[in-house]
């Protein structure tokens, strides 16, 4: 690789090059077994990124879809993850209602508090005010109806999702597939 290309890449990465325009783009597609996949990217070259995302889908048994082909299967929601040792289920549910959250899910080790994107800042502020330790918080695309892992496609689906997440332009990958711990343990090498 020529030294000019290396220097330009370094300057581009550090923001020293002026005039670089980055775009936020969303790609949609179907993975192995028909799972829906939504990919949020940030790129300075939409053609390159589209070609590379299309290649990854094809390589792993899926296909890139048209705009709107899977987005309807997801809702944008705020998600706060709170350690289960902090409060009991009744108190966290009561608290979530008090601060304007939409819902609470009880997982194995944590509580997940859900809110609308509009209500995200207010709920975040309330959780900070009440000094409730939040393990993570994000605005996420949640599947309206999660589906079970397609039979016999676990490794192929996981490889596709991992390849997409590893792409340099990809910010987030969302899928409507439900992967339980047992399936993950069986798929691990």
Can you put this structure into words, describing what you see?
The protein has two domains: 21-71 and 145-187, YebC, transcriptional regulation domain (Alpha-Beta Plaits, 2-Layer Sandwich); 76-140, YebC, transcriptional regulation domain (Alpha-Beta Plaits, 2-Layer Sandwich), CATH 3.30.70.980. The radius of gyration is 20 Å and the shape is globular. Helix content is 35%, strand content 31%. The longest helix is centred in the first third of the chain and has 14 residues, at 46-59. The mean pLDDT is 88. The chain is of the alpha+beta class and 189 residues long. The strands form three sheets. The protein has a four-stranded antiparallel sheet, covered by helices on one side. Strands 5-6-4-7 form a four-stranded antiparallel sheet, with helices on one face.
Task: Tell me briefly what this model is.
This protein has 189 residues and is α+β, with helices and mostly antiparallel strands.
Distance between the termini: 35 Å
CATH superfamily heading of the largest domain: YebC, transcriptional regulation domain
What characterizes the major β-sheet? Answer: 4 strands, antiparallel
The total strand number stands at 10
The secondary-structure element order is HEEHEEHEEHEEHEEH
Count of distinct structural domains: 2
Spatial strand arrangement across the major sheet: 3-1-2-9
Radius of gyration: 20 Å
Alpha-beta classification: alpha+beta
- Continuous helix count: 6
Low-confidence stretches: none
The oligomeric status of these chains comes to single chain
Mean pLDDT: 88
Helix content: 25-40%
Shape descriptor = globular
Strand percent estimate: 25-35%
**Which CATH class of the largest domain is shown?**
Alpha Beta
Q: Name the CATH architecture of the largest domain.
A: 2-Layer Sandwich
CATH fold-level assignment of the largest domain: Alpha-Beta Plaits
